[in-house]
Amino acid sequence: MSEIRYPRATRIDAAEARLLEVEPWDKVVPLRANDLDSGSDPSFEKVILPTFRTLLARRDITSLLDVGCGAGRLTRRLSDLSRGSIVAIDPSQVSAQIAQEHLGSDDRCLVHNMSIQRYAASGFGGHDACVVSMVMQDVVDLASFLESCSEVIGPRGSLYCCVAHPCFWPAYWHYDSQPWFSYDREIFIRSEFRTSLSNSGIDTLHVHRPMHRYVNELLGHGFRVKSLLEPMMSAEDQRNNGVTWRTPHFLFIECVRRG
Ligand SMILES: C[S@@+](CC[C@H](N)C(=O)[O-])C[C@H]1O[C@@H](n2cnc3c(N)ncnc32)[C@H](O)[C@@H]1O
């Protein structure tokens, strides 16, 4: 296994952030697909996937949408929780292709190569459940993103979001001590994407936003927050995977669209 370096995280402006919003995911997604297929990402296997499964299993779902589906691995592993259609969308062309190859054998699944904004503008919608996994911390314009999510979810439909926890990520990427960092601001950051096993050499964007910013944007776009979750990896899973979690790494927000 190659030694993991902690890559430099650099503050960038909104114009540069826009250039990094989608294009790098074309290069990252094959690595991410391998990582997930090898089962070597304990955060995904032991925390993200089971948390989404528990939340989604609480309601009867007939039309599931996965926004920013990446390689489609999460979509696939949630698909049994919809008794109707499953739609996965991603503006990264390679992601949509890889997701299509992975999901294509299930004729209930449809993959579209488009952003949520284009999907909403094309008149698609009526979903009763929508999953947004590790996407909201990668979009430049959170307001437009959530407005489109709200348009494609039917009244009283559910939105399930997972973001990198904004109290953990700055320490993980070692920028919490940078002079430009301030917890309560929106900050665009360029840093090298890391799989669970190695550095990728590919720069991606992530956006630091305080927790209240996510919640207030959701409330402002027609959602009611039903629950906030900060799941921890169990002590046994930490031991078995050789990792230590002192704080939650992910923040889940479960919402319902007001009628
Ligand atoms: C960190 S990846 C997450 C992929 C997948 N959900 C996962 O958990 O592995 C972020 C994804 O969001 C997608 N994305 C970026 N902007 C988007 C937008 N406006 N609408 C939908 N997806 C978007 C990117 O192309 C990328 O595939």
State mean pLDDT (0 to 100 scale): 95
* Approximate strand percentage: 25-35%
Strand order in the largest sheet: 4-3-2-5-6-10-9
How many domains? The number is 1
The CATH topology turns out to be: Rossmann fold
Using the coordinates above, name the CATH class.
Answer: Alpha Beta
3D structure, described in words:
By secondary structure, this protein is an alpha/beta fold. It has a single domain, classed as Rossmann fold (3-Layer(aba) Sandwich), CATH 3.40.50.150. 35% of the residues lie in helices and 29% in strands. It has helices at 14-19, 23-37, 42-56, 73-78, 93-103, 116-121, 142-152, 169-172, 211-220, 235-241; strands spanning 9-12, 61-67, 82-89, 109-112, 127-133, 153-164, 187-194, 199-208, 223-229, 250-257. Helix 4 links the parallel strand 2 (61-67) and strand 3 (82-89). Helix 2 runs parallel beside helix 5 (93-103). The longest helix has 15 residues, at 23-37. The radius of gyration is 17 Å and the shape is globular. Bound molecules: S-adenosylmethionine. S-adenosylmethionine binds next to helix 2 and helix 6.
Helices and strands in order:
Layout lengths: L8 E4 L1 H6 L3 H15 L4 H15 L4 E7 L5 H6 L3 E8 L3 H11 L5 E4 L3 H6 L5 E7 L8 H11 E12 L4 H4 L14 E8 L4 E10 L2 H10 L2 E7 L5 H7 L8 E8 L2
Parallel strand pairs: 2-3, 2-5, 3-4, 5-6
Antiparallel strand pairs: 1-7, 6-10, 7-8, 9-10
Helix pairs in contact: 2-5
The site of S-adenosylmethionine has 23 residues, from α2 and α6.
